[in-house]
Amino acid sequence: MKAFQSYKNPSLAVDLVVFGYHENELSVLLLNRNAEPFANTWVLPGAFVQMDETFLQTCSRVLQTKLGMDNVYLEQLYSFDNPDRDPRGRAISVAYYALVNPHKFTVTAGQMANDVVWFPVKKIPALGFDHKEIFKMALQRLQSKILYMPIGFELLDELFTMTELHELYECILDITIDRRNFRRKILDSEYIINTGTKRDGLQNRHPDLYRFNKKLKKNQFQLSVGI
Amino acid sequence: MKAFQSYKNPSLAVDLVVFGYHENELSVLLLNRNAEPFANTWVLPGAFVQMDETFLQTCSRVLQTKLGMDNVYLEQLYSFDNPDRDPRGRAISVAYYALVNPHKFTVTAGQMANDVVWFPVKKIPALGFDHKEIFKMALQRLQSKILYMPIGFELLDELFTMTELHELYECILDITIDRRNFRRKILDSEYIINTGTKRDGLQNRHPDLYRFNKKLKKNQFQLSVGI
DNA sequence: ACAAAAGTGTTTACTGTACACCCATGG
DNA sequence: CCATGGGTGTACAGTAAACACTTTTGT
Question: Membrane-spanning residues where (chains A, B) (predicted)?
Answer without folding.
Answer: none
